[in-house]
Amino acid sequence: MEGDIIIGANGRSAVGTLVERSTRFVLLLHLGKDRSVATVEDAMRKAIATLPGELVRSVTWDQGREMTNHRSISVATGAQIFFCDPDSPWQRGSNENTNGLLRRYVPKGLTSPNTWSRTSCESCRASTDDPARRSTI
User: To which CATH superfamily is domain 2-88+100-124 assigned?
Assistant: First the structure.
């Protein structure tokens, strides 16, 4: 899996994204106004727990401070957590592409993910998770 956080307008809100590499399945972490270490950890544990174990071998994340508790997340979920090199978004290419698709729904500076309900997150996730987008490899 690959993960990141999309920051809303003026940095006041956030939605976490997890993308399964081979199937391109998307999970959104509804973080609202709180993107603290504890909130991200809790959201990741809950999201990863919904997936079959064979889909969650590892998570590749950027260098954000929200993953300070990566060891705890790894122990709780069984997924190894790796970090990209600084300024190397191509090391999480599937996630960067997904974030670009999600920005169609939440353009930078125009709409805040904080205004999304969990239902809105789910409908947005479903639209980015259609079979036409899936990898044919």
Answer: Ribonuclease H-like superfamily/Ribonuclease H (3.30.420.10)
Distance CA 60, CA 40 (A): 15
**Burial (0-12, 13-18, 19+ Cβ within 10 Å), 71:** exposed
Q: Which two tokens stand for residue 108?
A: 């930078």
- Show the tokens assigned to 31: 């973080």
pLDDT in tens, the chain (137 residues): 999 988 877 777 788 999 988 888 888 888 888 889 999 999 999 999 998 888 888 999 988 888 888 999 999 998 999 999 988 888 888 888 888 888 776 656 545 555 555 555 565 666 665 555 544 43
